[in-house]
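Appendix C. Worked example: Intracellular PHB depolymerase
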Amino acid sequence: MAGHIPLAFFAPPHRCGSAGVSAMLYQAYQFQDDLIAPLRDLARRLQIFSATALWGSGSEMGRHFAAALEMISRFEITHQRPDFAITSVMIGNRVAPVTVETVLDLPFGTLLRFATDTDAKRPRVLVVAPLSGHFATLLRGTVQTLLRDHDVYITDWANARDVPLSAGRFGMDDYVDYIMHFLEEIGPGAHILAVCQPCVQALAAVAVMSEERHPATPRTMTLMAGPIDPRESPTKVNELAVSKSLAWFENSLITGVPWRYRGAGRRVYPGFLQLVAFMSMNMQRHQDAHRKLYDHLAKGETAEAGKIKKFYDEYFAVLDLTEEFYIETIERVFQKAELATGDLTHHGRKVDPGQIRNTALLTVEGGRDDICALGQTSAAHDLCRALRPHLKRHHLQANVGHYGVFSGRRWEGEIYPVVRNMILAME
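Step 2, the predicted output written as structure tokens:
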């Protein structure tokens, strides 16, 4: 399923309702989901008996009936983070158990550590996950690979609908603050790896820390398929982001969290809207995938069906973004490209990547990436003008799309060794 999945950008639907309608979007979605819930529950109950009752355990009709029931039971979007499900990793010639620890728990994000049972000192890496409608577990493959040689931490962003209004706002500047706070918690000598959308905020955080000569400034910074300069080779995603006014985004896509949730009343960009936007960009592909899933289920091909189910279990788990983070990202990252133009500020203070002098830079792009095109990430090299040549490296993986940059066979076998070598060189 990897290759062209737009999982880390803000792709708005082509059309949406007026401001009055948008105010009720969440309530309408929740009402519809509540109506469908009993049908899903009934389908799950019938699945228990479908193999033996009425149709017979081995009959073709029975298998099709069971497949239809499972498809109905899976007709659901969830707002709960899936488990990382990383329990072990191969370190050297032995399998080491892995446990997930909470290092720092803040209202809008948690710093997690994947602790391994090893006494060897390993480079510490902070993986900065996208905050774009899906949970950090989408980077499970990235983390699993990094764990072979590194002590891995990750930013586990909160679902905004579960954050009470009393926690305040969370915008782009706050995102940068969280990255810096997490690096401080990890301590001096760490490394940072940002995937997709947060490449902008990660670069900003390193620039601010470099200017302040902060002791926790990371030794290396790996930016993977991120919109450092979205004006380079604009994709459909970039064009959608600049095709509407900021007022349109505010009036059409922002809605209030229903009162049943902890974040009741908070204005958010709902994760279910982001999911619809993603799927609408390649609806035929998703329809074909579900036809294949039904066929596999009906034929009893559990392994093949399991691969598709695993992907969509993750894909249909969504989180909401705060209004301020979504709107500021649309405006500052995509519409104004503030980082690339030198206009980006952090709490009113100019962000200057030219202050980065000791943090080695690695950028990674996919040659078939139709979400973050060639040149958008490598633009970081011109911005980090004070870095000496031996502290800069760019890797172009010609045969992968967006998702393949940080997950899958090419990531593990060809991209990861470049990342590992950059980190080891600066240890």
